[in-house]
């Protein structure tokens, strides 16, 4: 099978993107893992298919780098909106369906604004917060973030008794002045630290609001900067937006 693929990245979170509107692409777990392999394949944190879906501009189908179907990916969603605009499926606004439900998005001044799911509650754990922003996230506030071994500490939490069955993404966040955060994330499915995690920074922003941070919050990740805006509603949040760049890196062909 010959595939035409595109490579996109959003603040260093990179993806193999495929146009499957004609429903001709069916990949096995092993094939997805191969395409995402950084030594033997194309290399990416995940793979996405853009597909037709009645009632929506398109459907987002997302796979982790290990080849398994995954929950929502925020940076992936932003990149797929940019891809849909490139394909002329949408102009400056999009309404699409993903694993966690419908999403709206718009493009403005070179940035993709992606509406994330509403969050009803934040669960307080010992020294951390757990919440679902389309994917499950463990958020721990730390100091001296840049000196941490995020791989080792994140992996230990991800495979702890509480989370090892379903897994969780693990975020370490340092609170900075002027309504800013610095975030590093260990992602399940990739099983490593990534340069950026959209649902992760969203989770960190909502958790930080409990400490007095106000919308919009600016978040520094290894791959650049993102913003999260939101409205608080009781113990939850609505109109949550993940905002940042989405860039097409290259187009290529590969044979499976």
Q: Any key phrases for this structure?
A:
alpha+beta, Diaminopimelate Epimerase, Chain A, domain 1, 4 helices, 256 residues, globular, 2 domains
Task: Give the helices and strands, then pairings.
Blueprint: E1 2-10, E2 13-19, H1 29-36, E3 46-51, E4 58-64, H2 74-86, E5 93-98, E6 101-108, E7 111-115, E8 123-125, E9 128-132, E10 136-141, H3 150-158, E11 169-176, E12 180-187, E13 192-194, H4 198-209, E14 217-221, E15 224-233, E16 236-244, E17 247-255
Parallel strand pairs: 2-3, 4-5, 10-11, 12-14
Antiparallel strand pairs: 1-2, 1-17, 3-4, 5-6, 6-7, 7-16, 8-9, 9-10, 11-12, 12-13, 14-15, 15-16
In short:
Substrate binds at residues 13, 64, 74-75, 169, 187-188, 198-199. The protein has helices at 29-36, 74-86, 150-158, 198-209; strands spanning 2-10, 13-19, 46-51, 58-64, 93-98, 101-108, 111-115, 123-125, 128-132, 136-141, 169-176, 180-187, 192-194, 217-221, 224-233, 236-244, 247-255.
N→C terminal distance: 5 Å
General shape: globular
Total beta strand runs: 17
CATH architectural arrangement of the largest domain: Roll
Order of helices and strands: EEHEEHEEEEEEHEEEHEEEE
The proportion of strand residues reads 35-45%
Biggest sheet descriptor: 17 strands, mixed
The poorly predicted ranges are none
From the helix content, strand content and strand pairing, which structural class follows? alpha+beta
Helix count from the secondary structure assignment:
4
What's the average pLDDT?
A: 96
Number of self-contained structural domains:
2
Q: What is the CATH level 1 assignment of the largest domain?
A: Alpha Beta
CATH superfamily caption of the largest domain: Diaminopimelate Epimerase, Chain A, domain 1
Q: What Rg do the Cα atoms give? A: 17 Å
Helix fraction, binned, reads 10-25%
CATH topology (level 3) name of the largest domain = Diaminopimelate Epimerase, Chain A, domain 1
GO biological process, one term: lysine biosynthetic process via diaminopimelate
Binding site for substrate: 13, 64, 74-75, 169, 187-188, 198-199
Pathway: Amino-acid biosynthesis; L-lysine biosynthesis via DAP pathway; DL-2,6-diaminopimelate from LL-2,6-diaminopimelate: step 1/1
Active site: 73 (proton donor), 197 (proton acceptor)
